[in-house]
Amino acid sequence: MYYYFPDNYRWSSAFNLALMSGGTLGELHRGLGHLDGSDPDNLDDVAWGQAWANMAREQEEQAAKDLEAGFPRSAGARYLRASVYHASGERMIPPGEEKTASYKEALDAFGKAVELSPLDIELVQVDSPDGVLPGYLIPARGTDGPAPVVIFYGGFDVTKELLYCFIEDTFRNRGISCLVMDSPGVGEPLRFRGVPSRPDYEVPTAAVVDYLETRTDVDSSRIGIMGISLGGYYAPRSATFEKRIKAVAAWGGIWDWGKTWEKRWGTRSKTVSVPWFQLPWVMGTETMEEGLERVKQWTLVDVLPKLTQPLLIVHGENDRQVVVADAHSAFEAAGSEDKTLRIFTVAEGGAEHCQTDEPDPARQLIADWFVSRLR
Predict the structure, then answer these.
(1) What is the C-alpha to C-alpha distance for residues 254 and 264, in angstroms, rounded to an integer?
(2) Alpha carbon distance 325, 255 (integer Å)
C-alpha cells in the first residue's frame, strides 16, 4: 500500500480509499500535504476533518464558477469529488453535530453531481423492519426486457455514495443493474436514525429483494449480492438464508469478525481503518466492552456450511485489517459446490484490504464473475 503518511496506516488507507473513489492525486496532495509528519500515535482527526472539508469546498467553489461559465458537466464532476472528500473527512469525526453536518455536506454535493453530470441513477427507498433503507439503482445498459441485478452492500464505514464511486458503470456496461444500499449500521440509517448493524442481515436483505420483485425492469430470478469489507459478512450471511439470491461475492473475506476485533483491541492494532469509536457506534452500544461482546455474533463459522449458491471471495495477500487466513477459512467452510477464492498477491498488486491499493482488476473480476452466474 502507498503510505502517503509514513507509518500511519489509518490515514494512508483513507487516502487510498479516496483515490479508489475518484479523488485525484494532485488535489489530495495540495489539501493534505501539510498533515504529512503527523504523529501516527497521536493523530489529530480534527485537523484531518478540516483538511478534507477545505478540499471539498474548494471543488464546490470551482464548480460554481463552471456553472457560471455554462459548463454543468464540469461542475457535476467537481461536485462528485467534493462528495468523496466530505465523506473521507467525515469517517474520522466522532458521532455528534460536526459529523452529521459533514455527512449532510457529502449528501448535498452528491445530489448536485447527480443533477448536473447527470448521473444515470435512481434514488430508491426500501421499506424494511429497520425503517426506510435508501439506495441508488444503477440501471443496466443494452438489455431487452428485465435485467439481472446485484445488490451491493458497504461495510463498516462506507456509504452508498462511496459505493457508487467504487462501482459506477462496471455492472451497467455488462447488462447488469446494481443497487448500492445504505443498510443497518451504515450511511443514513445509522447517521440520521441511529439504526445499528444487526447480525441477521437476511432480514433487511429480504426487504430489498421484496422491493426488487416489484420492479418491471428487474429480473427477480437473477438477483445477486455482494459486499465490500464487512460486507463480506453481510452478503454471504444474507444469501445463506435468503434463497432468492442466486449468487454471492465477498469483496474481502470475513470469517469470525468478533475474534478479529478481540485481537485488534487486545493489541491496540495500528492497522484499523477508523478510530475506535466506530465499533460501539455501529454495534449500537454505549461502551467498547459492550461492543466487543455484541460483535461476537458477527461470525460465519456456523453459517457458511449452509450456503448453497455460487460464491466468490476476493482477498488481498497482504490484507492487514482481516488476515488472509480468514478468507481461506471461509472458502473451505462454504457449502457451495460452485465456489472460487481469488487472492491478489503483492507481486501483481491489489494485495491490500479490498484491493484499495489497486482496485480495478478486482472490480472487473467480480463483475465478470456475476455475468457468468446470472445468465
Answers:
(1) 15
(2) 9
Q: Which helix (H) or strand (E) holds 273?
A: none
Residue 271 in contact with residue 320, Cβ under 8 Å?
yes
Residue 21 to residue 1: CA distance in whole angstroms = 16
Q: Is the dihedral of CA 197, 199, 203, 208 positive or negative?
A: positive
The confidence band for 2, taking pLDDT boundaries of 50, 70 and 90, is confident
How many other β-carbons are positioned within 10 Å of the β-carbon of residue 340?
Answer: 15
Q: In what order do the strands lie in the sheet with 311-316?
A: 122-126, 133-138, 177-181, 147-153, 218-228, 245-251, 311-316, 339-344
Q: Is the peptide bond before 310 cis (omega within 30 degrees of 0)?
A: no
* 131 φ/ψ sector (left φ>0, alpha ψ -120 to 50, else beta): left
* Percent helix / strand / coil, the chain, rounded to 5: 50, 15, 35
| Among 28-42, 55-69, 136-150, the least confident range | 28-42
Q: Which residues contact 15 (CB under 8 A, 6 or more apart)?
A: 2, 4, 5, 28, 32
**Per-residue pLDDT at 365 exceeds 80:** yes
Give how far Cα 102 sits from Cα of 97, 183, 339, Å. Answer: 9, 19, 41
8 A C-beta contact, residue 202 and residue 241: yes
Percent residues over pLDDT 70 in the chain: 100
Domains of the chain: 9-116 (1.20.1440.110), 122-373 (3.40.50.1820)
> What was the pLDDT predicted at 41?
78
Residue with cell 429497520: 130
Q: Which three cell numbers stand for residue 196?
A: 445499528
Task: Look at the block and give the residue holding cell 441511529.
Answer: 194
Whole-model pTM: value is: 0.97
Q: What is the mean pLDDT of residues 155-178?
A: 96
